[in-house]
Structure prediction request, 700 residues.
Amino acid sequence: MPAHVSESDSTPDPTSTTGTTDPLAHERAHLAASRAALRGMREDVQALDIRDVTANWVNAAVLQAQIDDRIKALADLSHTPLFFGRLDYLHAVGGELAEGAEGERFYIGRRHVHDAVGDPMVIDWRAPVSQPYYQASRTNPQDVGLRRRFGYTGGELTAYEDEHLTDPAEAEHTSRLLQAEIERPRVGPMRDIVATIQPEQDEIVRSGLGGTICVQGGPGTGKTAVGLHRVAYLLYAHRERLARTGTLVIGPNRSFLHYIEQVLPALGELEVKQATVDDLVRTGVEVRGEDEAATAVVKGDARMAEVLRRAIRSHVTAPVEPVVVVRGSRRWRVPAYEVQEMVDELLARDMRYGAAHEALPQRIAHAVLVRMEEAGEAPDDRVQNAVARNPAVKAAVKAVWPAVDPAKVVLRLLSDAEFLAAHAEGLLSEEEQKRLLWAKPARSVKSAKWSAADAVLIDEAGDLVARTHSLGHVVLDEAQDLSPMQYRAVGRRCSTGSATVLGDLAQGTTPWSTESWGEALFHLGKGDAVVEELTAGFRVPREVIAYASRLLPVISPGLAAVESVRESPGSLVVRGVAGGAEGLDAAVVAACEESLRHEGSIGLIAADARIPALGAALAAAGHAHLSPGEETTAASRLTLVPASLAKGLEYDYVVLDEPAAVVDGEPDERTGLRRLYVALTRAVSGLTVLHAAPLPGALA
Prediction:
C-alpha cells in the first residue's frame, strides 16, 4: 500500500538524505527554502539597474516593461502550492551513476525556482524531466523509483503519498490525494489542474506546435483545462516564436472567460489574450440587432463566403478607354485591351481585392515604363512610382477596380434583393434569400441594426479585401457551437499558425452547431488536424453523468458516454414537486439552503425565462446571489445561472430547476435537450433536479 502521511505522522522517509526522522518536516523545510529562493529571484530582478544598458528612453521603457512582467511572473501566491510532487530517479538524468550512488531528485511545481548559486529547487512542470510525473507507470516507470504527491491545506503542506513504481510488491492503487484535489470545493475562478493531469491529457498538452489538435471531450473530462495547459506548455517550449506571433484563447462568452482567466497567470503566463468570437469580428460596426434562428443559420452557412466573394468581385468592370499619361511634352498611351489583360491576370491569380487594387496602378505604370525604354529613355523605380500616382492612372483604377468598403457590400446584400439574387444565384434558394433581406433596409452602415451573424459576414468581406493578421496559436473552446462562417473567422486568425480546438458534439446548443469535427475543421482551414477523444471523467460523479447520458442517443447518436472515475453515492436527487410554480419556487429555495450547508460553490440553473421569478424567491427568503462571471467567495457562494450561460462553468453543488422549461426555452427539441445535458453536468459533488412538470421523455 502507498504511504500516506498526515500532519501528525512521523514515518521515516527511506529516500531522505537529510538525516531527519520526520519526512513531512523535511518536505516543509524544502518548501520554506524554495519560497525563500523565489523571493530572492524576485528581489534580484527588482534590484536590476538598467541605466547603463539602455541607449535611449525607448529601449529603457521596453526593458522596464519586460522587467515588470518578470517581477509579476515571480510572484509567490501564498495559497498556491509552489510544488505538488517529487520524482526520485534511479539514475542520473541523461547519464549513468557510479555503483552505489543515488539517483537524482526533482520537485515538480508550477514554475522553476533556483537557489542563490543556480541549483534547481523546483522544476517547472513543463520541463522534459518533469514528464514522468504524469506518464510513468508500473509497466513503464521511465527510470523513476518513487513518485511522491503532496497534499496541501491552503498554502501549508499537510500530507504526502508515495508510489514505488519499481516495487513489484506494492499494489496498484488510486491516489487519495489526487482524488481529494479533484474533489476540493470550488470557490472563486477556475483553477489549474497541473497537479492532477492524467497521462492521456498530458499527451495532448505536450503535443507539438506545428499541428492542430481537436479534443472531443464530454463533461468533466478536463478538455478546457487541457487546452489552457497546452498554451502554457507551448509558451514554455516555443516562447520566442510565440512572443513574435502571439497566442489567443477564444471562449463562448464573457462569463466563461472571466471564469478561466486566472488559470494561465497561476502558471506564470501573463501575456495570453482572451476573446469571444464576437469580440474578434466587431471591428467597425455596432451589434444592436438579433436574427431569428432560421436567418442566423443561413448567414452562418459556408455558402455565404462565395456570395460575398462574388459581390466584391462584381465591383471590377471592363475598361472602356485607354490610359493616357502625360509627362512633360510626351504622352504615353496604354490601350484599353492591355489594361483588360492586366485585370484578367489579377482576377485569375485570385488575389485579395485590396492587394489587386494596389497592384493594378503599378502594372499600368510598368507598361508605360516599357514604352519609355523603347523610346530610348532610362526610367527607374522612382519614375514608375510617380507614374502609378499619376491622376490619369488613378482615375483609370478607380473606374476599373475601385476601392470597396466591406460593411457597405454586406449592407447592400441585405438590403437590395436584385444585388443579392445576382450573387446568390445557384447558391441560395429564393426562400433563403428572402430570409437574408431586411424588412426595412437601413440607410447607412452606422444606422443599420447589425446582428452578430452580420458582423461575421463583414469580417469575411474584410478578409476578401485585405488579409487578416494570423497568430501563432489559437485555442478555441466550446467549438461545437460555431457556425461555418464563424469557423472561417477563427481560422483566419491562425491561418499560418496552429490551433487547439476543444468541444463536445453533445453540447452543441445553437441551431447551427456542427454535426462532426471533420466538417468543423474543414471550415476552420485545418482539415489535417488530429482528433483526440477524452472519455474518462474526473469532475462529474458517476451517478450524475450516467443520468445525463440517457439523453445521448437522442442528442448525439453514436457518441461514447463519459466513464466517470468518481463514484459518489447520494450525489443525485430527482424530485417531483406539487403545488405549481409557487410550490416549485419554494422547493428550489429549500434545495439551495440544503446545498449551502455543504462546503463549496452552489449553482442554481434554470431556463432563462425562470430567472426573474427565482431571483425574487431567493431575495424574499433572504438569500443574496451572484450572476455568472461574478467571482464566488467564502461569504457569497450561490450563483443564479440562466441555462444559456451554464456551458463551461462548474459548481460543487447544482440545483436544476424544471428540466422541461430548459428544453422548451430553445428553438427545437434537439437543441433544448442538448441545453439540458449541459445543465445536468455542471455539478462536481451533488445534483438536485426539481420538477413540477413531467420530465422530458428521453430523461424519464
Notes: The longest helix spans residues 23-46.
